[in-house]
Design a protein that fits this description.
The complex is a heterodimer of chains A (342) and B (325). Chain A is of the alpha/beta class and 342 residues long. Chain A folds into 2 domains: 133 residues, Periplasmic binding protein-like II (D-Maltodextrin-Binding Protein, domain 2, 3-Layer(aba) Sandwich); 155 residues, D-Maltodextrin-Binding Protein, domain 2 (3-Layer(aba) Sandwich), CATH 3.40.190. Helix content of chain A is 41%, strand content 19%. Chain A contains 13 helices and 11 strands. Chain B is mostly helical and 325 residues long. Chain B has a two-stranded antiparallel sheet. In chain B, α6 runs parallel beside α9, α6 runs antiparallel to α12 and α10 packs across α11. The longest helix of chain B is centred in the C-terminal third of the chain and has 39 residues. Chain B starts with a helix and ends with a helix. Classes of the chains: A alpha/beta (342), B mainly alpha (325). At the A-B interface, α3, β7 and α9 of A face β1, α8 and α14 of B.
Chain lengths: 342, 325
Amino acid sequence: MKTRRTFLFGSVIAGFLALGASAYAMVQINAAGATFPAAIYQKWFEKFKTAHPDDQINYQAIGSGGGVRQLTEGTVDFGASDFPLTDEQIAKITKYHVLHFPTVMGGVVPTYNVEGVSTDLKFTGQLLADIFSAKISKWNDAEIAKVNPGVKLPSTDIVVVHRSEGSGTTFVFTDFLSTVSPDWKNKIGKGPTVSWPSGLGAKGNEGVAGQVKQTPGAIGYVELFYAIQNKMPFGAVQNQAGKFLKASLESVTEAAAGAAKSMPADFRVSIVNAPGANAYPLSTFTWLLIPDSIPDAGKKKAIVEFLHWMLTTGQNDAAPLSYAPLPKSVIAKEEAQIAKIH
Amino acid sequence: MGNTAAVVAPSPGGARRFLKRLQDGDEIAHMLTLIFAASVLLIAVLLVYELWIHSSESRQRFGFNFFFTQTWDPNSGQFGALPYIYGTIVTSVLALLISVPLGVGAAIFLAELAPARVSNMLTFLVELLAAVPSVIYGLLAIFSLVPLLRTYIEPGLKATLGFLPMFQGPIYGIGFLAAGLILAIMTFPFIISISREALLEVPREQREAALALGATKWESTWQVVVPYAKLGIMGSIFLALARALGETMAVTMVIGNDPRIKASLFAPGYTIAAVIANEFSEAVNGLHQSALIELGLVLFLLTMILNAGARLLIIATTKKGSSRE
């Protein structure tokens, strides 16, 4: 009896050792961060694993804030964020310098529930700022009517719906409002969570969409990919060139191309209200945050290979998943930045 | 028993007896269970310690003002807990105001008045309700409770009781009232289930004695059985209160997540648990994170204060009842 048990115990240990040995040849890379690009990242890491069986990248979609925190603490190999790090945050990471790599792009669209309005409403940036700061409180306000001639607007009260949890979506939206409205910039500012002057908070794109759908007179904002996948109606927003645009993957990519000319070398750039006749104003990159010094040779090789792959083959996966692919001009600049990893 | 063993241990006879007891397993059982019990205390102490350490940045910056200011603005680095404390208290109290009478009433029916078969079936259902995850209650609230509130209940309250400040203002459906109601529904099964157990524990002789003295069935239930089961019923209320204070998911789905103090129950609000869950993952700067952790500490304190308050209140009211008898 006793020998039998020892034998069983021994074989379990041997099993673990065998597992360990097979894992030894494999490069395990851990990453964490933004939830918005999680769908495409999972797909990328899975496909990359098929092409490179020895490289396993694990991604935890814990939110941009969590990604930055884990990167700062050194518990992950690289991070991912929907907004670039501030100088202060970069200074906190002392072991290496963090490189920003844009991966794909997304847009944010206004969605609303106004009784009797079947056409797409148009919004200027200033109008959105006034609505979301409760300066305009009725749908038939003269300012709304001015940019929507011919639309019969009801006298319903406007109910603002915003995200309750910290999110990259809120960051882009408030970034845009801060850019177009000095008043918004001074009083509220931009960030993943801001102090909203009014309205209801709902969790996630689905929460905002659901709340808007349920509440008569509501207006909110959701990610473009969410609106596309759920075939939701949404409004057009005026861009810097003065054109009212409904967001599409092409017009989001166009925004990055418009901003590429003035792109800083470290890619820490906001592309809201970008120049270009067809550039959608509520657009953003999402970034991978990669250390410029990776001491582990195996990990370094895998990460560099992944970045090359992501900028070429990987970009083809963007559109089917409703993410906007990077423009060529940005890809070329990023390829050059990969050389900085040592 | 452990103490006497330790005291008499030095004498040789005592040592032998101690060894004997060790062999019998008594001492081992005593020590093991003591360790398990101590771990509860240890966890509580560690929890407070961790919250205290990690909230230091916020505590130093805001001091006691944290409890009394209303601004919560991550951009300007201003953090005040008052709207969250207010929202947590309002929703929990509202929930208990509804669920305690309903729950205790239902428990009395199930334990004392209902036929055994009905009682068993209903009790099974109640226990099933207690096991439903809170996100399910949240969805239920969003899809049925909130539209009901928006179209019928809140306009009705506004039309009839609109002179009271708590039934004024614009109607969204979601808000304090929706959160309080869903919490009432969620805490209801806890109160029924535990109160019923407590009522069933009351010895038969108590009822028989009351009946023999000429009490009616209801008099014996209300004046003898319920006071006898007081402790158990109190326990159920504390458990319900704890659940209401800490409930996160269902509340954040229907409260509107707006950190403002409004007298109206129709207005959107916010609770401590909800804001921690919502903002923690994206709290990038240290002060924001630290303020959220301090909110956790506040919730801990609030739970203790409200629990102590509820205990005192119940002791005071039941004493009054017994002196009248």
